[in-house]
Specification:
Chain lengths: 262, 278
Amino acid sequence: MTAPMIEIDGLGISFGKGARRLNAVRDVSLSIAEGEAFGLVGESGSGKSTVLNAVAGLIGDYSGTIRIGGAVVSLSRSHAQRRLIQMVFQDPYGSLHPRHTVDKILSEPARIHGLTNVEKRVERALADVGLKPEHRFRFPHQLSGGQRQRVAIARAIVLEPRVLLLDEPTSALDVSVQAEVLNLLRRLRRERGFTTIMVSHNLAVVSYMCGRLAVMNRGRILETLASADLAAGRFDHAYTRQLFRASSGYDRELLQDLWEEA
Amino acid sequence: MSAPILDVENLRVTFPTYQGFVDVVRGVSFSLGRERLGIVGESGSGKSLTGRSIMRLVPSPGRVSADRLSFVGMDLLKVPEKEMPKIRGKRISMVLQDPKFSLNPVMTVGQQIEEAFRLHVARDRALARAKSIEALKAVKIRDPEAVYHLYPHQLSGGMGQRVMIAMMLIPEPQLLIADEPTSALDVTVQLQVLAILDDLVRERGMSLILISHDLGMVSAFCDRVMIMYAGKVVETVKASELHQVQHPYAKGLLASSPRLGDDRPELPVLQRDASWAR
């Protein structure tokens, strides 16, 4: 077996000091193979996005090690290491520069990384995410939410990364638009063989997109299981059961349990 | 069936633009008894404006017109603006989407709830305080005395939403309009908030309109579901018969969301048809 693409060992992240210290992530270990689609689920504050940010190199102060493509990485990364990993954020309204055109948004990362043929790359990225050439010189406010998220995905793939990090990529979108973006992400993964980590609180979306997933609560990974097992109800942890039942719709009986726990 | 609480016929909301008048809600009709009605649609389908028209909260320069908009026999369109505060908040209340933006950030939770009581019920301060604590208890806040003194930024999302529900329910309205009350919340917290709404609606015999884009959640919670598209009601179904919907838009919506254990290679994307909007 080849070495895993992403290997996280004993990751711990805390914010604040003294009595206000918050351990956001505690002793998280993961191993994700090249080309695998991995999901992280949990409620707000469970630390799932923090893990993603640490992998992306947005958080420097952590304990434990993160290895990407076999090499240990830290906050200061070379251009080549940064290019390896790209991220798509939750809110397409907040993550695009409001005064940059789509063209500028897409060509900037390519120029920063000193790539040649920027023109061609931008055209290709636009076509890959299903946007038309006429969208190229528009500003984000002239696009719909779904189109903006396509631009954010194009910005991530223009550098031809090997790892794509997805932080709730569809939770700000309508259901009908969500299906388009999910299809797009699945197609890109098929064509380009990305390794992906997807964070979401929607179990159905994560299990549709990922082969394996980890359930997080209060900074810890409770269990790691295959999506098929989740769908079939084969899991061990009580918290997973709660999430599972909560996402199957409104259910009076479940509430009794939830209140008792709260 | 008993006389309807709310009777809406041919409701229209119009906004002037540079290209002329645009109808955002185009002839919506429904009547509501003592039940839980869900209104589902995508962004821009006019579902929120339908709710706001009932409260007479459509922002200027929007204009509301209807053949009939009656609330327990009263014509809401003819009530003078001066009289509206006796209805709005008192007999019809509204829970909004995000407690972060809709609670007053510089007033404590207790003051805000008391304000609702003193405005609508009685001016007695001591009674208002006791009632506020009681209302916080009713929405299952564990330590109401402590939460009473907190500011909205000190609350979690689910708690904030429960505070808002407490505030809306203190004048004991007959109709509650909840506009995306849970879409800013986690799945488990969503369930808790829904359960509180459910209990209160049952215990107090209120009518509820739940506006949301989440078809699954609405169908599990409401008695009836009304599906809106481009300002029109395209179909109304019993929640239990949701899988039998006829309209292609509703069918497309149902098919396009992934389910647990979904093994479809690709999700069907909604193909819009210009004739739906006609």
